[in-house]
Amino acid sequence: VGHDVWRDPAEVKARIGVLPEGLRLFERLSGRELLGYTGRLRGLPGDEVDRRATQLLDVLDLTGAQHKLVVDYSTGMRKKTGLAAALLHNPEVLFLDEPFEGVDPVSAQTIRGVLERYTASGATVVFSSHVMELVESLCDWVAVMAAGRIRATGTLAEVRGGAASLQEAFLELVGAGGRDAGSGLDWLGGGSR
After folding, report:
1. In this predicted model, what pLDDT tens digit does every residue of 76-126 receive, in sequence order?
2. I need a labelling partner for 134 at 20 to 30 A (CA). Which of 59, 128, 165, 170 fits?
3. CATH number for the 1-128 domain, one of 3.10.180.10, 3.10.450.50, 3.40.50.300, 3.40.50.1010?
């Protein structure tokens, strides 16, 4: 984004959106109230916050639940509300941690559609996931991390290398290739006790 995170954190925060795993939302607010609060906290004019919130609630299929308290939202609704809050100020870069974990297929498809529309506009999404099939279907550029170190980085093809899938390449890169998860479980299955 062109700004030093440590020297100018306020400027950086104005340009990024974040949806962390396990996001804590103000549960005693409704979805609409939460977005209104978030937008005003970011310094957006009230009428602009309301306009953007209405559009985000509509696109993320939350209009019907906008006046319900967040405490009553499902996991998928919470993720979509968190995504709406992260996008409300139209950041240049969006950071997502496991954005599809615990999300139903319909909500996942909705989130995916919003992210594809967002990146098509030239914005950047950085997200973490343990689901390699998801990474393969969504990402242009990949970094594999293990024990706090980057083991590989590049395009999907570069990171995959000669492996049949990103999952296979990941297992090799983190040193788990060839591990037999079923060994020593000869008693498992088959109906015997």
Report:
1. 899 999 999 999 999 999 999 988 888 889 888 998 999 999 999 999 999
2. 59
3. 3.40.50.300
